[in-house]
Amino acid sequence: MKYRMMMTKKGILFSLIFFFFVSLSFTQEALKSIEEDYYDFLSLNGTVARPTLGYKTLSDNIWEFSEIDSESHIWSNLNLGSNFLLWQASSPVDNWFTRGIEQSLTAKVYGPEWVNSYNTASPYGQNDGGLWQGCGYNTAFTAGARLEGYGFEATFKPQVSWMQNREYEYIKPNYTGETYKDKAEKYGYYGVTSVDVPQRFGDSPFWNFDWGDSEIRYSLYSFTVGFGTQSIWLGPAKLNPIMHSNNASSYPKLDIGFRKTELKMPYWEWYLGSIELRGWWGKLTESDWFDNDNTNDNTLISGLSINYQLPFFRDLTFGLNRTMLSAWKNMSSYTLFKIYNPSISSGTSGGKDESDQRVSFTIDYNIKNAGFEVYLEWARNDFSPNRDYYIRYPFHTAGWTFGTEKTFDLPWNLKGAFLLELTFLECSADYDRLISWYSTFYAHHEIKQGYTNNGQWLGAGIGTGGNSQYFGLTVYYPRGSVLLFMQRRNPDLDYSMYIDSRANGTQAEKNIRAELNFGISGLYYFTDSFNVQLQYILNNQHNPLNVASGNTSIHRYNNYINLSLSYKI
Fold first, then answer.
1. For the chain, what is the mean pLDDT?
2. Which of 16, 54, 165, 554 gives a 20 to 30 Å CA spacing to 385?
3. What percent of the chain is predicted at pLDDT more than 90?
4. Contact, 24 vs 81, CB < 8 A?
């Protein structure tokens, strides 16, 4: 009898353990994580469907497998993270309302993940959230969990980071006066227009706590509304999205809209394409190293993203993104909903830029049966509804990112992909020849902090006024991957060109700065759940101090080393 009771207890315990840890066939991944990059690679061949069309956060990034093809899914034996079923309704309620929600309780654990990097000569790094990778040693730790049930979602995934912030030589900041005393005048940006992107965050090591991808949300069918700090990635770019990325630290925001939704003709059930729509409002904060004015520390960002996938060409997606910055202290119902007025121009006469806005159009063509993708984001700063502007000079204040990616098979069951991405954010030629004032893509007059949050760019990590050409080759094998890449970029040519043509009168090529980056990255799963990633990049900087005359052939060599450890439950 005692033995039978013990067996009964063991059976109950086993059933509970099994019940509480049933892995589901979908997973939710952070932006630019190892797992998300891998799933995106699989989507090129149609092994897994992309969960979004153009607006992406951790909560939207749900990758589902209809079936596991171990030949295409080369990491199928690894634990890439799972959602676990905690509780399932034994008798689900069936009505219109409950059919739009999952009548269950699921959970997911994120991390832990520990990132360590070292820059020998100058800051380097992008798309890393609240971590600012300055000169010296930098480290960040993140972990969290997600709970979801009956339409409600709660995610807690903060990031804690520490930066050694060693001294290095940089360009003299372009700030003077009491407003910037002991802050931007010592550590700030060098551009002609003010922008809150410190070249160094003070003169001592510092900690940073960032709420990261934390959020509460409610969803019904495809409708969703949430409040939190999850980073946004807009458009199809893999490295430098122009309108929004996870390059800067997170900020509190409210968003509302519809996730990727199939449209069908009533009665006939004809497929009319898929649509995605999201609007959001957030609170940006300036860094501690900008100015001494406490009245302008915060900025309202409002945004709108609309994406549509064609019905007859399901591989083709079009998108429209628009963002607007306004002074937080002047916030009203008018400024909150101004983003939805298509006729609003950049501001009053004289370039006051009271509505600091940008717009971009995206095209993404993913031919799944060929493992090939090509995409374009064309953006414009200083948006104006005046059609005559587009006829006379459509390139005014424009920027773009173009990319293409192709997968291929290799011997010994290896898989590969190459990525080419080009980004151009230099000011248009009319500023140099026809307009008498300075401008650059991520800065305007009224919002002095520019398109930034806590001292880092909200959009493309290469920053304002420059260009980038990136080529990478990735090879996947059953327990990891290897990446080789090279990149050439010009940091902020708007500043270099302006200094030459307006101040010194010297030839522009003497002032131009450039960087050549050569990198290798290796990822290996020592166990099915534990991986280590090691990366080395040689960052060769030509004329890093923007010397206007004399010896401009000086090189600064920065060695970037990154060691990341991650464990999946």
1. 88
2. 54
3. 66
4. no
pLDDT at 458 over 70: yes
Judge whether 552 and 543 are in contact, CB under 8 Å.
Answer: yes
In order of 164, 229, 297, 351, 517, the CA distances from 134 in angstroms are 7, 24, 23, 34, 17
Decide: helix, strand or coil at residue 406.
strand
**Confidence at residue 26, expressed as pLDDT on a 0 to 100 scale:** 67
Contact 189, 173 (CB under 8 A): yes
**CA–CA separation, 57 vs 88, rounded Å?**
26
End-to-end alpha-carbon separation of the chain, Å? 38
With the CA atoms of 121, 123, 124 and 125 taken in that order, what torsion angle do they form, in degrees rounded to the nearest 10?
Answer: 150
* Distance, CA of 461 to chain centre: 9
Sign of CA dihedral 119, 122, 124, 130: positive
H helix count then E strand count, the chain: 8, 28
433 versus 53: the higher-pLDDT residue is 53
DSSP reduced 3-state for 329: helix
Do the bridges between strand 55-56 and strand 22-23 make them parallel or antiparallel, or are there none, so unpaired?
Answer: unpaired
Alpha helices in 21-160 (DSSP H): 34-43
pLDDT-based confidence at 13, cuts 50/70/90? very low
What is the rounded CA–CA span in Å between residue 78 and residue 84? 16
Dist. CA 124–CA 472, nearest whole Å? 18
Cα→Cα distances 150→51, 106, 278, 389, 506, Å: 20, 10, 22, 50, 66
Segment 499-529, tens digit of pLDDT:
655 544 445 456 789 999 999 999 999 999 9
* Number of Cα atoms under 13 Å in the Cβ half of residue 486: 3
Q: Please name every residue paired with 555 in a beta bridge, in sequence order, or none if there are none.
A: 542
Give the pLDDT score at 1.
37
**What single-letter DSSP state applies at residue 173?**
P
Q: How much is the pTM?
A: 0.92
E strand map for 436-513: 452-453, 456-457, 467-477, 480-490
Measured CA to CA in angstroms, residue 98 lies from 62, 93, 220 at distances of 21, 6, 9
Q: Please, are residues 253 and 213 in contact by the beta-carbon 8 Å criterion?
A: no
Which residue type occupies 199?
Q
Q: Token pair of 148, please? A: 């979801």
CA–CA dist 141, 162 (Å, integer): 9
Of 209, 279, 298, 299, nearest to 250 (Cα)?
209
The pLDDT tens digits for 242-287 are: 999 999 999 999 999 999 999 998 888 889 999 999 999 999 999 9
Number of residues that this document lists for the chain:
569
What H or E segment, with its residue span, contains residue 562? strand 555-567
- In this predicted structure, what is the pLDDT of residue 22? 53
* Contact between 272 and 20 (Cβ < 8 Å): no
Asked if the model's pLDDT at residue 405 lies above 50, the reply is: yes
